[in-house]
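Customer ticket, subject: "Can you confirm the structure for Zinc finger protein?"

Message body: Hello, I'm evaluating your service for our small team and ran a test protein. I'd like someone to confirm that this is what the system normally returns, since I don't have a reference to compare against.
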Amino acid sequence: MALISSLCIFVLVAHFATPIVCHEKPYQAALFVFGDSVFDPGNNNYINTTAHFQANYLPYGESFFKPPTGRFSNGRLIPDFIAEYANLPLIPPYFEIGKKPFVHGVNFASGGSGCLAETARGFVIDLQTQLKYFQNVAQLMKKKVGETESKQILSNAVYIFSTANNDMFAPLFANSSFPYSDTEYLQMIMGNLTSVLKGIYKEGGRKFVMLNLGPLGCLPLMRALNLQIGVTNGSCMEKATNLAKMFNLALPEMLKQLEKQLPGFKYTIFNFFKVLVDSIDNPTKYGLKISESACCGTGPFRGIHSCGGKREVKEYKLCKNVEDYLFFDSAHPSELAYKKYTELLWNGTPDVVAPYNLKSFFKLST
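Agent reply: Thanks for trying us out. I re-ran your input and got the following:
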């Protein structure tokens, strides 16, 4: 398949033919996806892990996928909706590229993973390993379509990330005292993220989309944990949200540095923090009703991560109308919430996505 199709128009005006005009019409830019369970389309189905890090069983996926694919929601995720808006097919998980075309992009995300190899080590595909898988795909692409086209596909593609969520949980769940200060830990995370972005850039990637971190302390999981440690008013866990804010302050600075260092490097940031806080505070604005409790799980706020009954805790309840809920399970938004967020990511204004929304970012030439 040629990357550039020539659209040649032959026009007869009166009795004279105008010269043939050829317009180069690029194919739609590909989408490569990296990160954690916010984006995982089922990669964790293929690795040696536990049900804690998987979602390939009911009621996951029930609103859209039959059978469940491994997505941590009741249906589609942000990359699925982006593909729809960008006129791309569903982007396949890395482990399915043997049977599905991958020139439109590949999804490498792994539920539970982080920027650091130490985060859930042995159970997930960390970000550095996701980069290695991407490098494999870049080589396969050269063999499939040739060097020139492969280069065009990779440079024109959009690379989207949802990562560091799970890194930020590590200090909160550490059994013994955590060995790093917040600043040292953030530097490690940013160092790893930077090296992965540089690795993709080296293969030809130029357009990077980053989701910043949501208010982690307001997930049903963290509200339930807060109750366990004696905060009785059902409020968000401040420490968790503060760690997210710390990452969110460092992220644009790091991307600005890369923009200065790497010719042609372009980025945009989706303010996931802002839209999630807004949907928790004003659910009706997003067509939702219930924003503190999950649809699927058990315990206070259905914040115990038991949805599907395959993890450590087997008991779970499922809501009657998932479309009322912001959160599907104890840590992940519902399909409807993801759809609303993708609309903002695709068409949003600079207070939500900047310096580019995704619609213009896809069209941006490199």
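A couple of notes from the result: Residues 18 and 145 are 34 Å apart (CA to CA). The chain has a mean pLDDT of 92. Feel free to reply with more questions.
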